[in-house]
């Protein structure tokens, strides 16, 4: 048996189409096998709330071991997982190819897939995963939607808490009246004198950039054009990360098939594919190929996909950046999101911002605690803030002018943590994503 963590972690294809995958007794056997290994190791005790819940459950049992823990009591452990992948990517010494073959996040995915298969996912949780539908509905009435979802709205937020389970104080993303995916005809002029001139890329717009913050996409397109890259916006549908978190693997497979088919002609014409949010890049690069490995279009898309920060850094290293970057005053705190780290590409958000001259860049590489829709729910919100408190504390101590994260949702959650520490809102710029800061440094 080899010592753990000496080889690169690998992942198995997800066997979601096999009958045994949904066998509750076989799941229980695997849960107990994995949980017992985790109990004996405890290296992940401080990553998220799943592991403390598991260890408290075992420690409080009659024997102090897993054999006297009821399987019914596993549910809170399963529910507490945000599927951030950090235990698999950065902590666990027993991931494949180790003989123990431990993949905690994909085990939790299997448990949730069984819940979805047995119709145990709640109505509210399902509605929150319908990001495209929600965005399309909200766009024509964005003013009303943003008023209704605003923190402090004593008329609507208590109702949302009672009916949807969304904590009344959780910051929710705003909706835009003009989706980014509708802006294809507003392409900026490509700089033919840039060192990277000749590159061309499709921007996979993502549901967040399309319906919530198109400024991320506008900034990305402007920076790329200034650096000689021709871009097109393509957005067939959401990447399916919200559905994956709820165990709807079949739905994710259908999405992957559709999106890969839409992007295939662009890839064949030599276009790179750039995802503007790390969760979506993670899905296209890594999760989709494990769900439908036989789909050659999905495999091709995986190889052609880049995170936006990864792509900009590659320009800087291979061709060199276009001139025009100027110092950003007040300093920057950049949070490296879990789904960026799970792409195993390094601190690309920080690398990109260090291209800006004479600018103080402070890097924070730790979980914000948000976990997508998980962190806004009434049962999880306070726990999510507790998990993210070390990040918020560091941001509060640094007091930089610009606070950004590769995950825009994590950025807002961090600011809520800072607000609790300082007992007042943070006095920072409204920029969410590192690419927006690069556009600002270019004065675009």
Features:
alpha/beta, 22 helices, 3-stranded parallel sheet, 4-stranded parallel sheet, 444 residues, 7 strands
Question: What would you say this structure looks like, in words?
Answer:
With 444 residues, the chain is of the alpha/beta class. It folds into 4 domains: 19-117; 123-164, no CATH class; 180-317; 324-441, Rossmann fold, CATH 3.40.50. The chain has 22 helices and 7 strands. Strands 2-1-3-4 form a 4-stranded parallel β-sheet, with helices on both faces. It has a 3-stranded parallel β-sheet with strand order 6-5-7. The N and C termini lie far apart (55 Å). The mean pLDDT is 93.
Report the uncertain regions.
none
Main β-sheet description: 4 strands, parallel
Query: How many domains in all?
Result: 4
Strand content: 5-15%
Strand order of the largest sheet: 2-1-3-4
Computed CA radius of gyration, to the nearest angstrom: 22 Å
Structural class: alpha/beta
Topology pattern, helix = H, strand = E: HHHHHHHHHEHHEHHEHHEHEHHEHHEHH
Assembly of the depicted chains: single chain
Cα distance, first to last residue? 55 Å
Shape: globular
Task: Give the total of beta strands.
Answer: 7
Whole-number average pLDDT? 93
**Share of helix, binned:** 40-55%
- The number of distinct helices, counting runs of at least 4 residues, comes to 22
